[in-house]
TrEMBL record:
InterPro entries: FBPase_C_dom, FBPase_class-1, FBPase_N, FBPtase, Fructose_bisphosphatase_AS. GO terms for molecular function: fructose 1,6-bisphosphate 1-phosphatase activity; magnesium ion binding. GO terms for cellular component: cytosol. Homotetramer. It is found in: Cytoplasm. This is Fructose-1,6-bisphosphatase class 1. Binds 2 magnesium ions per subunit. The gene is cbbF. It holds the Pfam family FBPase. One of its GO terms (biological process) is fructose 1,6-bisphosphate metabolic process. Gene3D superfamilies: 3.40.190.80, Fructose-1,6-Bisphosphatase, subunit A, domain 1. Its EC number is 3.1.3.11. It comes from Sinorhizobium americanum. Keywords: Carbohydrate metabolism, Cytoplasm, Hydrolase, Magnesium, Metal-binding, Plasmid.
Length: 350
């Protein structure tokens, strides 16, 4: 499908899908417009006056430091959805969802700026979004729309503000990557089809947390680090950008596995990433590209969230590798499979 514009892609989806597809398409189009405004400000970095993202603000609902740009992006996405077919809007930056049009059939959850600790360092950041059917009923409150499992998502995507400005989008059948063409002034499909290879030799994890992980994750990583001398019998490469969107983009383009597991630090018992507006949309995108996404053990998209800002351990990417991580949690043979040198002790604890 490479070469088609986002507009044409959305028009064909709206024409062939159910009648709600038109609403989904209208939302994606509005988000894409707002993302170009965010990109403009992001690209100015520290030159972007008082709103350049260099000053830190307060704390969000999850206790993370908010940057000016986190808040500004949130405002831009919320305003772009005024008048759109959206019943309610939830964001990392807002404690509670905002009610927009109660008669509309869709709900939008957003991480307005993902990877925002990277703003000042000029590393790729992005915006993640999830589109769900809005909960209906006389007693319904806006929060209920966001407490549905991710398998009910109708669409999910993210914008990447990097060397290229890109939109990764899944409308439920496949995952597409669009790159913004400054020549044409619109997003254009950049690849024929996205299909994550089953097998990989590249993992992404924040290694500085090694001592806080549970045994299963340490053993998995020990085995990757042991390379061709260990039970994997091949060399592994490692990446950590500390930007979920950038990491996901790389995995979509060339495979790999990403892990942000639970760990022993205070506040990290459920990992770092948020289920509703980070893990769920990423899992939807990844599964629609042939990969898988789990809590390191079970499927992300089957979880029923119990609150909007809930965190969740996350592993996603190449199917065989994600399945292998789960096996370290449940299969005692995974330890037996190792050469004696890599028995219980693990490389770092030898
Ligand atoms: O700094 P750490 O612990 O490595 O965490 C990095 C992770 O945190 C995040 O920045 C969290 O997202 P936010 O920036 O939206 O809070 C992810 O993009 C990234 O994968
Ligand atoms: Mg984020
Ligand atoms: Mg964020």
């Amino acid at each position: 499908m490479s070469g088609a514009t986002l507009e044409a892609h959305l028009a064909s989806y709206a024409a062939h899908g159910e009648d709600i597809a038109q609403d989904v398409a209208a939302i994606v189009q509005r988000l894409a417009k707002a993302a170009l405004d965010v990109r403009k400000i992001v690209s100015q970095g520290a030159l972007g006056t008082a709103l350049g993202g260099v000053r830190d603000g307060g704390l969000n609902a999850d206790g993370d430091l908010q940057k000016d740009l986190d808040l500004l992006s949130d405002d831009l996405f919320l305003s772009c959805l005024q008048g759109a077919p959206v019943a309610c809007y939830a964001s990392e930056e807002l404690e509670n969802p905002v009610l927009l049009d109660p008669s509309a059939r869709l709900a939008v959850a957003i991480d307005p700026l993902d990877g925002s600790s990277n703003i000042d360092t000029n590393i790729s950041i992005g915006t993640i979004f999830s589109v769900l059917p809005a909960a209906k009923g006389p007693e319904v409150n806006p929060s209920q729309s966001f407490l549905q499992p991710g398998n009910r998502q109708l669409a999910a995507g993210f914008f990447l503000y990097g060397a290229q400005t890109a939109l990764v989008l899944s409308l439920g059948k496949g995952t597409e990557i669009f790159v913004f063409s400054s020549r044409l002034g619109c997003f254009v499909a950049a690849y024929k089809s996205i299909s994550i290879p089953d097998r990989t030799s590249e993992f992404a994890i924040n290694m500085s947390n090694y001592r806080h992980w549970e045994e299963a994750i340490r053993l998995y990583v020990d085995d990757c680090l042991a390379g061709s001398d260990g039970p994997r019998e091949r060399e592994f490469n490692m990446r950590w950008i500390a930007s979920l969107v950038a990491e996901t983009y790389r995995i979509l383009v060339r495979g790999g596995i990403f892990l942000y597991p639970s760990d022993g630090r205070r506040g990290y018992h459920q990992g770092r990433l948020r289920l509703v507006y980070e893990a769920n949309p990423i899992a939807f995108i990844i599964e629609n590209a042939g990969g898988s996404a789990t809590t390191c053990l079970t499927r992300i998209l089957d979880l029923v969230p119990d609150n909007l800002h809930q965190r969740v351990p996350l592993a996603f990417g190449s199917r065989r590798e994600v399945a292998r991580v789960a096996r370290y949690h449940v299969d005692p043979n995974m330890i037996g499979e190792r050469a004696p040198l890599f028995g219980k002790r693990g490389l770092f604890r030898a």
